[in-house]
Design a protein that fits this description.
Helices cover about 15% and strands about 30% of the residues. It is of the alpha+beta class and about 70 residues long. It has a five-stranded mixed beta sheet. Strand 4 and strand 5 form a beta hairpin.
Amino acid sequence: FWLRFVADAPTGEPEPGPALYLKVDDIDDYYGALLANGFTPSTEPRRQRSGAREFLIKDPDGNALAFFAK
């Protein structure tokens, strides 16, 4: 896992703060499973400059969880 601290975020991004990164095998399947179970991610899967695809969701305490696949 990765932990990221951000001073500020570009427009349209979730608010700044720490994010816990969790690797999954298939980002689209995982995103679809969350939607099918009633969860509402903060972002849709998107490709980052690093080449990884990721999406963000908040846990019940408001912490950002970033799921990613390379």
